[in-house]
Amino acid sequence: MGSGNINDNLTAAFIDHTAVIRVEGKGSFKVSPPMKQFIHKVIDDRSADRILVDMAACTGMDSTFMGVVAGAACMMRSRPSVRFKLINLSERNRKLLVTLGVDRVVEYSLQPNSGGAEVVAGKTSSEQILEPDFSDKLEAAKTALEAHSTLVDINPDNYDKFKSVLDYLQDDVRNLGGN
């Protein structure tokens, strides 16, 4: 839908004090800013005590998406009243988390019925598509920079992998007026 590929989108809903984000297609830099914004809104509003990211239909993840997931998981450590978890994770996506060390900081499950699947199975009228805002290039660059910085923070071995990406994103943020 909004990510440029009709198969890549995020759908969010509130069900029984649980915020559910469904990832359909690839979890990428294109859908990362609206996911991050939604998670922050849920936390700021104190409207949910659980945030579940349903990965059943997720075909893959890029580093920005994994960095946003890691950042959300780390943020929840300072908010023990809110639980953050990836559910229905495929073995392939689990391996992607392991390659960058994200598995060390995020709670996840591979099984469909491991705490939250009953909530995810229900459809609700509050369901909404989280559309990316392609006009806000500064916000997208800041999100990507923060995500990659988080990946380095949680696993210093990632620095060599992302040094050039971090340099590029820092320049991009600076050039777009974000200092």
Describe, in short, the structure shown.
By secondary structure, the protein is an alpha/beta fold. The protein has helices at residues 32-45, 63-77, 91-100, 117-121, 137-154, 158-175; strands spanning 9-15, 18-27, 50-61, 83-87, 107-108, 128-129.
Model description:
There is one protein chain. This protein is an alpha/beta fold and 179 residues long. It has a domain at 9-132: Transcription Regulator spoIIAA (2-Layer Sandwich). The protein has 6 helices and 6 strands; from the N terminus they run E-E-H-E-H-E-H-E-H-E-H-H. Strand 1 (9-15) and strand 2 form a beta hairpin. Helix 2 packs across helix 5 (137-154) and helix 5 (137-154) packs antiparallel against helix 6. The chain is globular, with a radius of gyration of 16 Å. The chain starts with 8 loop residues before the first strand and ends with a helix. The mean pLDDT is 87.
